[in-house]
Amino acid sequence: MHTRRWTLALTIVLILTALLPLAPAQAATATFTNAASIAIPTGPGTANPYPSPIAVSGLSGTITKVTVTLSGMNHTFPDDLDVLLVGPGGQSSVLMSDVGGGNDIVNGTITFDDAAGSFIADGGPLASGTYRPTEIGPGDPYPAPAPAGPHGAALALFIGTTPNGTWSLYVVDDLAGDGGSIGGGWSLTITTSASAPVVPGATPVVAPPWDPGDGRLNPEAAAPLAIYCDADSVYAYQIGFLEFDFPLDQIGPAPVAPAPQRTLLAEHADGTRLYQLSTGEYQIVSVVNGQEQTAILGNATTGHTLLATGVSGARLYRLNTGELQVNLVHGGEEYVFTWDGCPATRAITRVYDVNTRALLAEYARAY
Asked: Could you tell me the residue range of the domain that residue 349 belongs to?
């Protein structure tokens, strides 16, 4: 386990590019509901139905925000509950697991929103309100047909994916003696950006070298995430807590998979190209220090391996190019850090607007 003492607040260093005028993103928000009651057994066992589905249709563009509401929640020991949301593309996020304590919740309304001000308290009590997805002790199993883990614990994991299709809510009671129900069912509120993604019309500004001296790989964009490689693992911190720590010996070879079909959406004079992939992701291809580099926006699903998901939604990928990549959505921006392995010889950090996919800043570095 890696530990670091943080005494200096990290500062976001962003150098904005000069952009051509962009067409405004036409965002759309819609709520979809399955009001059928979900019966929770006096466990251990799965709820009925398992899963509870919601069919989403008629939305265009890709997801920029998701919230989930459980209505009429009743349980005599909420800490027994494990609740998992799975999107139509197979992405998954734990909403709550092993939290809420042992006091009854009666006819509660629980909303999950990454922008909420607090997590669910481990010791409870669980009361009606809005919370960030909260998981204590990740790794609880969700029986089939739920997808195998690992699962994230942030609704930002769905950003950049296609909203239409069947969403599934899996509810498990993992201990005996207590049960309940979600009497009013559940609902999804989805916001999408309906406009096609765009790239800036001017060459991104590259930040001058800057290093705080603690060995992080991405010093030019130190906040909101600091990424490190040592002899044993790749790991990342936010201020005051460890985001994830992944052993290098478990990274393995780059995945071998058929390349997804792609459509060129825009090309800049410097050779930077933006593609829409058949998987629903966006691919950025550019040349840095004479080397072509690829970055994937959204949740990589095909030809890429998700290695780890951090406590606030940071995702560590092994790309099919052999590179490593970390994605983090923070404050309306997606930070994408791509590097060529540990030890690194070259790396690039890009910052994108989550609504328009416009490139806001770029930091290139050779080690």
From this structure: 219-366
C-alpha dihedral sign at 105, 109, 110, 116: negative
> Where would I find the beta strands (DSSP E) of 80-224?
81-86, 92-97, 105-112, 129-131, 134-135, 165-173, 180-182, 186-193
- Is residue 77 located within the same domain as residue 185? yes
Q: How many structural domains does the chain have?
A: 2
The pTM (predicted TM-score) of the whole model is: 0.53
**CATH code: domain of residue 54:** 2.60.120.260
Q: Is 347 a domain residue?
A: yes
Looking at the fold, whether 233 and 168 belong to one and the same domain comes out as no
| CA gap 139, 23 in Å, rounded | 43
Q: And the tokens for 228?
A: 């490190």
pLDDT tens digit at each of 367 positions of the chain: 333 222 222 221 221 222 223 333 345 789 999 999 999 988 789 999 999 999 998 888 778 889 999 999 999 999 889 999 999 888 888 999 888 888 989 999 999 998 888 888 888 889 999 998 888 876 788 999 998 877 778 888 888 788 899 999 999 998 888 888 999 999 999 988 754 343 433 333 333 343 445 677 776 544 577 788 877 788 777 655 676 777 877 776 655 555 667 777 777 666 777 777 766 667 777 766 666 667 666 544 445 677 887 776 778 888 777 788 888 877 677 788 888 888 887 777 878 776 666 777 777 777 7
Domain-located, residue 348: yes
